[in-house]
Amino acid sequence: MTKRATIGFSEEQAQLLDVATTFCRDKSPIEKVRSLLEDERGYDEAIWSEMAELGWLAIAVPEEFGGIGLGMAEVVPVVEQMGRTMMAGPFVSTTLAAQAILLAGTDGQKQKHLADLCAGTKATLALSEPHGDWDLGHVECAAERTGDTLKLSGRKTFVENAETADLLLVSVSLDGAPALVVVERSALPEGALRREVVIDETRRSYQVTFDGVEVSTDGLLDPALTSAALTHVDLCASLLLSAEMCGAAASCIDYTVDYLQTRKQFGKKIGSYQALKHPIVDAHVGYEQARSHLYCAAFNFTQQGEGEVATRIAKAQAGDALSFAADRAIQFHGGFGFTHDCDAQLYRRRSLWCENQHGDAAYQRAKLADLLLQ
Amino acid sequence: MSAISEKELSDYRNEAAAWFAENTIADPGFMLPLTFMEVGTDQQFEFLREWQNKVYEAGYLGAAWPKAYGGGGLDQKFQTIATEEMAKANGPIMLNAIGLNWAGPLILDMGTEEERNRYIKGILSAEDIWCQGFSEPENGSDLGNAQTKAVRDGDDWVLNGSKIWTTQGNYAKYMILLARTNPDAPNKYAGLSFFLSPMHVDGVETVPIRKLTGEYGFTQTFFTDARIPGDCLMGEEGEGWRVAMRTLEYERGVRGGQPGGYVMRASDPFEIVELARKATRGGKPALEDPVIKDQLIQLMIEARALQLNSKRGHIQPLVQDKPASLALSSKLMATEFMRRLNEFAITLQGQRGAYYVGEPDAYDKGLWQRAYLNSFSATIGGGTSQIQRNIIGEHVLGLPKS
Ligand SMILES: Cc1cc2nc3c(=O)[nH]c(=O)nc-3n(C[C@H](O)[C@H](O)[C@H](O)COP(=O)(O)OP(=O)(O)OC[C@H]3O[C@@H](n4cnc5c(N)ncnc54)[C@H](O)[C@@H]3O)c2cc1C
Ligand SMILES: Cc1cc2nc3c(=O)[nH]c(=O)nc-3n(C[C@H](O)[C@H](O)[C@H](O)COP(=O)(O)OP(=O)(O)OC[C@H]3O[C@@H](n4cnc5c(N)ncnc54)[C@H](O)[C@@H]3O)c2cc1C
Fold it and tell me: What ipTM score was computed for the predicted complex, to two decimals?
């Protein structure tokens, strides 16, 4: 870690931030998010198509594969604004799958999939397993090769939007090492999916049983690049989770401040009590720090070494910031905070999901200790 | 104004870097203060005064202030570069903090031509040290309640009362002074006036106050029928609160126009890593303890956030939601961080954390212990952290008054 951390912001980031702020606010206000809580699919197809038309899925894909040719730094403001309104859907998982194929796919796979993914074909990641290890290299799902066929076995967990995804990026153990394989959703047999009950009710998460699933070896990503791809996906996911959490922290604080400005007890607005004012200020200050780390991570993402440090810091800080803000949001809404109708629970549930994907704050700090304290 | 080229800026950076590399004295052979509120001995004072003057003469202080009053007349970008290079070279702090950061910008902003001509150059060169007479024994946080009296007598004002916790009061030539000129005003704020008041007049006495570290650093100032000229009044009579609030905006960093340099040195978590290598736990370096590692990483993350916040503060699209937020939050964040960092450094030392400056067996000469005790200067001075939270809550988040 260099002693002086850097931050910068591109013209494209500024434009995307602007457009995404309005889009998410108009298309996915909280009433909309709530209306989708009971929906089986969990997101709105029409909004998905609009996002595809806006080119958001193409942001970090090079032009030669049908993308716009920017980077993850430009995806960050978009996801931050999605987090702000708690929009759900396969945007992040599709972006991440594209990144994996971009990094480790064969030329054929890139030609075959990337343009589609940019245009709105949905993809998801099947990287987690019941053992719950955050180390993506710990793979127990297996693949056996016979000629041109791979026979898969084992279970994957936390596969988001598996029901509606067209492609799944699956990690398997092949010849004793992790491998990545692209599986068409249509290759899964009836009954392979089980919807998981998860704490973040805006999300749709599935367990996928791959026992007996056979796919062509054409779907295998370059084995020499698997490890790099797993690392890259892990960091991209952490970056975007940080963005999502920062956005959510901002709106969680705004939401709570609104209440503190209106609710009266003992003849006074409760926001005048320092028992509430000071912690909400601390939450705000924590959010400001997390946001600075987020945009530092975005700016440095492609820098060797520095990108990983900045991203892990961003993930740790965003997780802590959102958890604290959302925890206090429940408490400061009093009895109403204890209800399903109060948005505070949506934020808290989301923070518990996001923190626990790809490593919580303590895990990130342990990784940072290895990187920084030699 | 013609645009500044990248080349001009990088040339300037190179020159500044070379100058600071050559002129910065790393170790004068005695302890230097970490903040402007800790100048406790004449030796420290003289050293820092000379240093400030040298930086000013070289053009790296007040570079962006108007030439007419003694500044460099350059764009603020140049000053930012000079300050960065000063920090990189680990230069000592700027002594005349109140002059440079509150009184100076205030005079440039609201003062008369005459006041600018009279005061600005002496502030930059450290010839004229300034202090701030806001707090009183009864009224610290409740500044608007200040009771020191100023009564008109012919062309003069006559002062009576006492100010306390006055940083560098014993060295100052001038005080920015908030005094009550009308005890019968309709409310407490309306009766105040603001003075640029000389200290070296009959009836003004400063008494040093001993700090919790055992050193000296601030003073109590007593006014007994002290007579100051009529033109010391700044702005209109009865407008003191407005001027004081403007001063606080400079103090809190929400108004620009800073002359550069820095008045507090941040301790570096990397230095604590070194300490964690030396200190032991269970016969092994404390740095190998996972809990300690985790705490260290947290502190490093916070230290970086402070740097990044100030950089993000210049990126307009990333601060437009709440424009004053980062500036107002930075004092709270930075000062509370320093306190916790120093505290952690002490706990890291285990039993030897109980040593203090002067004990030969203390780690790093006991300086962490001293730094920790001193760190409260900044969480109390210039508005306590609690008051700062009120300000952020009310001005940034729009919460009702406490
Ligand atoms: C699970 C549950 C069961 C309950 N069961 C019952 C029941 O059976 N019967 C019944 O009568 N009630 C019941 N209650 C209501 C409960 O007593 C109230 O929710 C509680 O007293 C808080 O009041 P409030 O919800 O109006 O919040 P508010 O009073 O509006 O408080 C909102 C926030 O402001 C804070 N606050 C308010 N005033 C101050 C102050 N002066 N200083 C500092 N902070 C302040 C609160 O701590 C809270 O964080 C129940 C509540 C819950 C959650
Ligand atoms: C090292 C140092 C240098 C200083 N230099 C100067 C100087 O140069 N010039 C000058 O004028 N002053 C100076 N001060 C004074 C400083 O501004 C005051 O100490 C400070 O504003 C607090 O006032 P007080 O000491 O009267 O504490 P009090 O106001 O009595 O506060 C006592 C405690 O109550 C809390 N408190 C008070 N009011 C509230 C509230 N409304 N809400 C919540 N909590 C509250 C405070 O946070 C504090 O914890 C200096 C102080 C220090 C420590």
Answer: 0.94
